[in-house]
Amino acid sequence: MEKLIITCAISGAEVMKEHNPHVPYTIDEMVREAKGAVEAGASVIHVHARFDDGTPTQDKARYKAIIDAIRGACPDIIIQPSTGGAVGMARDERLAVTDLHPEMATLDCGTLNFGGDDIFVNTENDIIHFARTMAEKKIFPELECFEKGHVDTVLRLNRKGIIKAPLHFSFVLGVNGGMTGEERDFRFMRGSIPEDATYSVVGIGRFEFPLAELAIMDGGHVRVGLEDNIYLEKGVLAEGNKALVEKAVRLAHKHKRTVATPDEARRILKIKEHTL
Ligand code: KMH
Ligand code: ZN
């Protein structure tokens, strides 16, 4: 099996210090959390910018400061900013970070309810606009799919030449309003993507580690982090992102998967081929 790519979603847009005090807001906190995750074995850092008071932002200058600071501490790492931002943000506001030309960014592939009255809006035209903008700027997209219809959308846009291979999917399972993250859900999603595609699982809340273990055994890749899950185990808050990555690494070793370095992750995902 290929080496295992571990992505760490260090900050998110919805989780707050009230939920877990290790959620980073300031630039120093972002660096601390990214560095810990990288030391533990993460090769990709998925980041949502926050202002110092915790307010989520897609402000370009704030992202630049965060990315430069993380890059200073972890020079080789793949930094993957969010183009999803927070529920309710406008399309161009969400896309502003692409002006910084990160090597990778998320591309959300459909609309879904997001708990309570929230709707995370990604219309077909949004997806096309995001995909074209990212392709023009040579940014490798992580194709976030919260349910099977989102995978079908990617495959349709791929046939039309709008989303180009190599395709790297993220199955984001367990959001309130999206698909759950049971084993049958994972098998359905995994069986729906092309043979030559790669994928990572993003299990929300209690689904994080059971899904990670399924993907590790299957040859897929894994995302963990405080954006998705604040607990190390039932009732025990994680003492930061590092602890969550360490747990993913223990699962990898249990199943004899070696963890990929950032350059190995670039090769496995074929980032260069995509951006030629
Ligand atoms: N914060 C969610 C509404 C992404 O990063 O692209 C969207 C999200 C997806 O987290
Ligand atoms: Zn995100």
The gist of it:
With 276 residues, this protein is α/β, with parallel strands linked by helices. Helices cover 38% and strands 17% of the residues. It binds (5S)-5-amino-3-OXO-hexanoic acid and zinc ion (ZN).
Rg computed from alpha carbons, rounded to a whole number of angstroms: 17 Å
The end-to-end distance, rounded to whole angstroms, is 26 Å
The average pLDDT score comes to 97
Residue ranges: pLDDT <50 for 5 or more in a row? none
Strand content: 15-25%
Biggest sheet strand order reads: 3-2-1-10-9-8-7-4
Structural class estimated from helices and strands: alpha/beta
Bound molecules: (5S)-5-amino-3-OXO-hexanoic acid, zinc ion
Multimerization status: single chain
Order of helices and strands: EHEHEHEEEHEHEHEHEEEHHH
Structure, explained:
It is a single chain. With 276 residues, the chain is of the alpha/beta class. It is 38% helix and 17% strand. The protein is built from 10 helices and 12 strands. The chain has helices at residues 27-40, 60-73, 91-95, 124-136, 148-159, 183-190, 208-218, 241-254, 262-269, 271-275; strands at residues 6-9, 44-47, 78-81, 104-108, 112-113, 119-120, 140-145, 168-173, 198-203, 221-224, 231-233, 236-237. Strands 3-2-1-10-9-8-7-4 form an 8-stranded parallel β-sheet, with helices on both faces. A two-stranded antiparallel ribbon has the order 5-6. Strands 11-12 form a two-stranded antiparallel ribbon. A hairpin with a 2-residue loop joins strand 11 and strand 12. Helix 1 (27-40) packs parallel to helix 8 and helix 7 (208-218) packs parallel to helix 8 (241-254). The longest helix has 14 residues, at 27-40. The protein is globular, with a radius of gyration of 17 Å. The mean pLDDT is 97. Zinc ion is lined by residues 9, 12, 46, 48, 82, 84, 106, 227.
